[in-house]
Amino acid sequence: MRRRYLTSILLLFFLGGLQLVAQETILSKQEAVAQALKNNFGIQVARNQIAIADNNQSILNSGFLPSLTADAGATYNRDDAVIEFPGQLLENGDPRPDFVIDQAEAQRYNTGLTLDYTLFDGMGRLYNYKSLKEQYQLTELQARETIENTMLQLLSVYFEVARLSENVNVFRQALDISKDRITRAEYAFEYGQNTKLDILNAEVDVTNDSINLLNAKQQLANTKRDLNVVLNQNLNEVFEVDTVVTFIPRLQLDEYIAQAKENNVAILQIEKNLTINDYDIKISRSGYLPNIGLTGSYGWNLNQSAASAFFPGTNNTTYNLNLGARLTWNLFDGGGTAVRVKNAKIAFKNQELLKNQVELEVNRDILNALEFYKNRLDIYGIQEKNVITNENNFDRSREQFQLGRITSIEFRQAQINLLNALTNKNLAKYDAKLAELQLLQLTGQLLNVEL
User: Fold this and answer.
1) Which of these, 153, 155, 150, 162, lies nearest to 219 by C-alpha position?
2) CA within 13 Å, CB half, 156
3) DSSP assigned state of 66
4) What are phi and psi of 83, to 5 degrees?
5) CA triplet 24, 27, 30: central angle to 5 degrees?
6) Is 330 exposed, middle or buried (0-12, 13-18, 19+ CB in 10 A)?
């Protein structure tokens, strides 16, 4: 009767757990990647940097368009004056009276447009425009590197959640087995088939398994919060993850490795910097050539003057149109242009050296990552076989224990061996997958493969 009651309780607990899992959202790897691409702070900053570089490469920032300026002005004068004529007489002999000017107003208005356009500047702005185009592409590559690093971080945390989720299930199964041992030990004690010591040993094992399960749950909760940070979502978001792991075929990996030089983001960035440095040399050389430009202006002026003692008031309106050309040639600037050209050439040479270094380091990293990946796959294969061996050993030990042919200590050791084998297999599986992801990043294919 007691056994039937305990079985009912365990069944209700199991069904309740299934219902809780069913209520939780399953967050797939593809959904996690899509959410990170949309919400992650670092990726949002990288996109803003691309927008800035796009603005910089615009024709509006190239210097190819003319400059047009407008100006306007207005002045107002008011004069009050008394003009005297000492010693001057009228025809009748009376002194000539003073001439009073009261509130004499004068206004001036002017407006104009000035156009300036550079026809030729030694090809400097052309090469600068091309350099801005390359800098935009470089910014895109830098954003891609940020996205790749974020994806690697995201998947590392995602697979850690998956590993801990599987470990929680393993520890929960171990706890169920230990609780079943207590029930069996209590029945056996009631029928006089064992001693109280067997019950106490089973209770100790239940305590240890309970602690292991609690610790695993706590680690899982913390890691889920880490994943929520990467996804930029509510830290208390409840979800489950996909624990299925698939590996890319070796032939496909070999193709990726063969094309790594054309796809590795570090190599692509160094090549863009090399192109930009080449344009810097040409921009510096433009200082040896003349600058030719056109200028033009159109203006309107209105002067309104008040009447004076000798002249009547006038309104003077003028329109003017000016066209001109200019040629400026800095024949000698104290050697500044020559120094800039020399320094640009040295920078270009340094960039070539850096490219050789980066290519060598990337090749080394790919070889190391490939060997590491193969090693992790081999370990995973060994751990899978080890799980099968320990499962067989545990099943046989449980049969022997139920028949009373081995002690509870021997049975517990078989259980611990299986527990360790299962957790080690989980660790090996996700280690191998992370090693594969690191290899994909080095070959430039991390964002191009199905997860």
Assistant:
1) 162
2) 11
3) -
4) -105, 120
5) 165
6) middle
State the pLDDT at residue 132.
96
Structure tokens that stand for 429 in this block: 């599986």
Q: How many domains, the chain?
A: 1
Give the per-residue pLDDT at 4.
41
Measured distance CA(270)–CA(161) in Å, rounded = 36
CA distance 394 to 178: 13
Q: Which amino acid is at 426?
A: N
Residue (of 190, 245, 289) closest to 427 by Cα position: 245
With pLDDT > 90 as the criterion, what percentage of the chain qualifies? 74
Q: For the sheet with 314-328, list strands across it.
A: 67-83, 99-120, 291-305, 314-328
> How far from 133 is each of 25, 53, 58, 273, 284, CA to CA, in Å?
44, 9, 9, 12, 18
Look at residue 264 in the predicted model and tell me its pLDDT.
Answer: 97
Residue 234 lies in a domain: yes
How much is the pLDDT for 402?
86
Residue with tokens 């193709």: 255
| Helix intervals (H) in 1-123 | 2-23, 29-39, 41-56
The CATH number of residue 255's host domain is 1.20.1600.10
Instruction: Report the distance separating Cα 274 and Cα 281, nearest Å.
Output: 11
Whose structure tokens read 């090549």?
Answer: 271
Q: Per the domain annotation, does 406 fall within a domain? A: yes
Instruction: pLDDT band for 197, please (50, 70, 90 cuts).
Output: confident
**With contact defined as beta carbons under 8 Å apart, do 30 and 242 qualify?**
no
The tokens of 423 are what?
């957790």
Tokens of 291: 């600058």
User: Which residues span the domain enclosing 155?
Assistant: 2-39+123-290+334-442
Look at residue 84 and tell me if it is in a domain: no
- Host H or E run for residue 71: strand 67-83
Query: Does residue 173 fall inside a structural domain?
Result: yes
* Contact assessment for residue 438 and residue 152, using Cβ atoms and an 8 Å cutoff: yes
Backbone phi and psi for residue 78, each to the nearest 5 degrees, phi listed first: -135, 125
Share of the chain above pLDDT 70, in %: 90
CB 414 within 8 A of CB 397: yes
**pTM of the complete model:** 0.84
